[in-house]
């Protein structure tokens, strides 16, 4: 609906511009015809021109005004050339002292003003100097330089009008850009709100469906193979739907531009995670068993996040403890194990207490991540202190 309204507004603005342009053309043509109707019969009163040449000479003085809207510099050049030719070619009628008709002077001044408003500054300077010299050369006495002062004032006024129009146009463009930015921000905020609602409602409940479908054969007695297959199909369908929801969330959170953040981490960056943990002072031992196999983006991200969260929990809740991270690759699964001992003497081991907390982060967050990709995760305190996290994830998954 917003796009339709914007198109309607754009159409109205375009129609308005076309209407104004049409009336400008009509006005210029009408004024030109009026000036021509004045110039033709009055030309014999100012210059000694034979009757057959009257329409031609009058046209040379008036018709350049037709270019005032599209090519004012060209129109001025034609009018100035006529202003140079007419005084040299035709004698003045006794009693008339000016080299041109009044309508010719009006046309030249109008074109000078139009040049000052529309053309480049270098062209304005050429037109200004040339017009002043033309009047100084042909207008008798000191009146020529008086006309030069008046022409200079006209050029300055035209430049002021030009800069005023430009500044108002830029202000209008800035206001339009600000309005578009406000509209764009409102759309992004609404999309982010929808994304949060979808995540809080749909994604959470879809994850619960996956967990219930996969755990049902173990929780319910007398589950035969057909029912087990039905639960597996339900879980796979739920994971596929959850994947679609995540794609939709990505679209809703996107502003239509290329993301400026780095891609989501995967198993290729696990080495960097281990090194950063060691640089932070963690006594970390790592082990990889088997040959790493290609995994989906979802599984790769899940392995990385489980390791990241487990190492962070160990650093927070058992500071100074020795930590072991182990990855075991098998043909169909990858097992992630992270264990830590009790905190160093003088430090408080809060692992057990922290493991009981919920809220979608920590242990419960890792369990949810593992279940979404079709895996399982268990986390529990170790006898004698410390904590253990163990996740078994499928190598290939549709999630």
UniProtKB/TrEMBL annotation:
<keyword id="KW-0902">Two-component regulatory system</keyword>
<dbReference type="Pfam" id="PF07730">
    <property type="entry name" value="HisKA_3"/>
</dbReference>
<keyword id="KW-1133">Transmembrane helix</keyword>
<dbReference type="GO" id="GO:0000155">
    <property type="term" value="F:phosphorelay sensor kinase activity"/>
</dbReference>
<feature type="domain" description="Signal transduction histidine kinase subgroup 3 dimerisation and phosphoacceptor">
    <location>
        <begin position="190"/>
        <end position="255"/>
    </location>
</feature>
<dbReference type="InterPro" id="IPR050482">
    <property type="entry name" value="Sensor_HK_TwoCompSys"/>
</dbReference>
<dbReference type="GO" id="GO:0046983">
    <property type="term" value="F:protein dimerization activity"/>
</dbReference>
<protein>
    <recommendedName>
        <fullName>histidine kinase</fullName>
        <ecNumber>2.7.13.3</ecNumber>
    </recommendedName>
</protein>
<keyword id="KW-0808">Transferase</keyword>
<feature type="transmembrane region" description="Helical">
    <location>
        <begin position="123"/>
        <end position="139"/>
    </location>
</feature>
<keyword id="KW-0597">Phosphoprotein</keyword>
<dbReference type="InterPro" id="IPR036890">
    <property type="entry name" value="HATPase_C_sf"/>
</dbReference>
<dbReference type="GO" id="GO:0016020">
    <property type="term" value="C:membrane"/>
</dbReference>
<keyword id="KW-0472">Membrane</keyword>
<feature type="transmembrane region" description="Helical">
    <location>
        <begin position="98"/>
        <end position="116"/>
    </location>
</feature>
<feature type="transmembrane region" description="Helical">
    <location>
        <begin position="145"/>
        <end position="165"/>
    </location>
</feature>
<keyword id="KW-0067">ATP-binding</keyword>
<dbReference type="InterPro" id="IPR003594">
    <property type="entry name" value="HATPase_dom"/>
</dbReference>
<feature type="region of interest" description="Disordered">
    <location>
        <begin position="340"/>
        <end position="360"/>
    </location>
</feature>
<dbReference type="Pfam" id="PF02518">
    <property type="entry name" value="HATPase_c"/>
</dbReference>
<feature type="domain" description="Histidine kinase/HSP90-like ATPase">
    <location>
        <begin position="301"/>
        <end position="395"/>
    </location>
</feature>
<feature type="transmembrane region" description="Helical">
    <location>
        <begin position="21"/>
        <end position="40"/>
    </location>
</feature>
<dbReference type="GO" id="GO:0005524">
    <property type="term" value="F:ATP binding"/>
</dbReference>
<keyword id="KW-0418">Kinase</keyword>
<keyword id="KW-0547">Nucleotide-binding</keyword>
<feature type="transmembrane region" description="Helical">
    <location>
        <begin position="74"/>
        <end position="92"/>
    </location>
</feature>
<feature type="compositionally biased region" description="Polar residues">
    <location>
        <begin position="340"/>
        <end position="353"/>
    </location>
</feature>
<keyword id="KW-0812">Transmembrane</keyword>
<dbReference type="InterPro" id="IPR011712">
    <property type="entry name" value="Sig_transdc_His_kin_sub3_dim/P"/>
</dbReference>
<feature type="transmembrane region" description="Helical">
    <location>
        <begin position="52"/>
        <end position="69"/>
    </location>
</feature>
């Amino acid at each position: 609906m917003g796009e339709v309204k914007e198109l309607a507004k754009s159409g109205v603005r375009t129609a308005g511009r076309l209407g104004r342009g049409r009336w400008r053309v009509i006005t210029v043509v009408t004024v030109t015809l009026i000036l021509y109707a004045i110039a033709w019969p009055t030309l014999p009163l100012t210059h000694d021109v034979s009757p057959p040449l009257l329409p031609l000479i009058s046209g040379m003085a008036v018709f350049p005004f037709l270019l005032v809207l599209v090519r004012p510099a060209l129109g001025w050049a034609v009018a100035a050339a006529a202003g140079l030719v007419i005084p040299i070619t035709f004698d003045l009628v006794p009693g008339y002292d000016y080299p041109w008709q009044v309508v010719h002077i009006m046309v030249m001044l109008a074109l000078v003003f139009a040049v000052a408003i529309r053309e480049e500054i270098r062209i304005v300077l050429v037109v200004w100097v040339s017009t002043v010299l033309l009047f100084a050369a042909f207008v008798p006495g000191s009146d020529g330089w008086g006309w030069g002062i008046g022409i200079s004032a006209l050029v300055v006024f035209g430049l002021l009008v030009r800069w005023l129009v430009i500044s108002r146009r830029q202000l209008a463009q800035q206001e339009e850009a600000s309005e578009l930015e406000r509209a764009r921000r409102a759309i992004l905020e609404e999309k982010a709100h929808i994304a949060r609602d979808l995540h809080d409602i749909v994604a959470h409940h879809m994850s619960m469906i996956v967990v219930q479908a996969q755990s049902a054969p173990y929780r319910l007695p007398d589950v035969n193979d057909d029912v087990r297959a039905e639960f597996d199909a339900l879980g796979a369908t739920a994971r596929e739907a959850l994947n679609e929801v995540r794609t939709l969330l990505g679209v809703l959170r996107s502003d239509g531009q290329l993301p400026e953040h780095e891609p989501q981490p995967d198993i290729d960056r696990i080495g960097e995670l281990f090194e950063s943990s060691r640089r932070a002072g963690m006594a970390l031992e790592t082990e990889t068993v088997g040959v790493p196999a290609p995994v989906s983006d979802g599984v790769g991200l899940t392995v990385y996040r489980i390791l990241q969260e487990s190492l962070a929990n160990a650093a927070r809740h058992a500071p100074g403890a020795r930590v072991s991270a182990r990855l075991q690759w098998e043909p169909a699964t990858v097992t992630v194990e992270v264990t830590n001992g009790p905190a160093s003497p003088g430090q408080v081991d809060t692992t057990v207490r922290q493991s009981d907390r919920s809220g979608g982060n920590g242990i419960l967050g890792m369990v949810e991540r593992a279940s979404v990709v079709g895996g399982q995760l268990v986390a529990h305190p170790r006898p004698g202190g410390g904590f253990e996290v163990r996740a078994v994830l499928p190598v290939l998954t549709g999630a």
